[in-house]
Request: fold
Amino acid sequence: MLSSKSDLFLQPALIVSALVLGIGSLCLGQYPLALSDVFHQLIHFSHPEGMASQIVWSVRLPRVLIALLAGGALGLCGATLQGVFHNPLVDPHIIGVTSGSAFGGALAILLGLTPVMMMGSTFAFGLTALVLVYAIAALQGRENALILILSGIILSGFFAALVSLIQYQADTEETLPNIVFWLLGSFATANWHKVAMLAIPMTLVTALLFQLRWRINLLSLNDKDARALGVRVVPLRRTVLVCCAILVAAQVAVSGSIAWVGLVIPHLARLLVGVDHRRLLPASFWLGGCFMIVVDDLARTLTQAEIPLGIITALLGAPLFTFLLIRSSRKARQ
Amino acid sequence: MTSATLNIQQLRYGHKEALFEPLTFRCQRGEIWAVLGRNGLGKSTLLDTLSGVLKPLGGSFSSEGGVGIVAQHFHLPFPYTVRDVVLMGRARHVGLFSLPGRRDARRVSGALEQLNIGHLAAQTFTSLSGGQQQLVMIARALVTASQTLLLDEPCSALDLANQQVVLQLISDLAHRQNRCVVFSTHDPVHAQQVATHTLLLLPEGKWLAGETDAVLTEENMHRAYGLPLRRVSLEESSASCLVPLFTIEK
Reply:
């Protein structure tokens, strides 16, 4: 763990890294641009003529922004959920929202709905999944972290089966590839409309979670302990879970389901700033954003065709997580 | 009559059914109450009820100036620093959308200094010994600024030297800081050494409450634990000691 002096320096450093990576990423792609061109276009945005301007303003900038926001959402959501569920192995999939959203999106593609309706469907089914998680918990008459996790696993499995059913039913020529590509995650269809779709709910929810970040420390205690300290655990946890569900649903709606980021980024962030959620939540947000920008750069530059994001996050995430596990168990043994 | 910090009237408590005949007793500032009784009778459940974690089944209790509790077991899922752990005790005093401020940090430092563990502030809680962890949790209860402190078997995991430290602390909290302290224990000697009053939980829902010497008689202890105890007075100690006579067949 690092001292509080370097903490002061770390958060701005992460924000600057995200900015630098973001601007750098505007140069990369099938049509490489020099850094000076990119700056020129960014400063003279009032003349939207020419190839470079089109590429920067209509293609790459919205794409980089979506990558930053989606990665940030997943990092923030992962760190929050790991805290709320007292468990460092939790990731955003655990509350069933990812699967629910994936079903909503796949259903929309199958039915040939418009992009806006597809996003609506993704969002609606994601939140439905969370409501069902709470309904299952309510049927059991208790509402603790373990019950919610188990209910989330049930819902995840159920919606995953529905997604498979849709894939099985889909036309193999056109619809199925679309569904599969969307499920693996991609920012290829990024546009300003999607940036707004992601940014508006995210700003509200992120601001709320940011204000509650010290309370996440309290929620990470066991329920009894937190209640004895005067924390109203149930309403607070519900609020936080709804925030996380909105983040995940919005992220899946614009970019498909992306695994690993929500699990690995909080661990990496803990290594940098420690376990206190006051510092962990912002660090996870910016680190997630940086990671996703890099992943997307790889996705669009490694080969001629786009590689789905889910493949790259898994290929990077698995060894990174292994490294973190080995490091922490070595540290524990010392 | 002076107002009690903890006023328990006809209290019925338990998870589903009331564990005891309705409880009535009052704890004043400066008093130390020991709670004794066999395993599983409901000592922890009583403290959970008084701390607000469990709802009472009937009757009422009121506390003036808030109640803080030190649980018997504590597990942290993340390696928080001692300072962060103690700071969590300020939850009631920090607004929902706010962060703890300088005043809260000063209270934390003050509590750690008071327990002579200021040097542990930056260490992770999980790296501490059981005795040190116990002191940290007491510090956390202190920063809640509650008039009544409940301690659930505070000495159960401690060696004799640390028991001395914690019992002295209990005494200071009540006598020097004029708080009301309630602690549960399995050792009648702890009650006799520091507790001004004792609540003795008996089988079949009965209970006795009153001044420690009046409650902890050989006869009452026999009723509570089902084995004979003898009261021994030692020249060195003002309090007498109850010694259990275990019957071991060989």
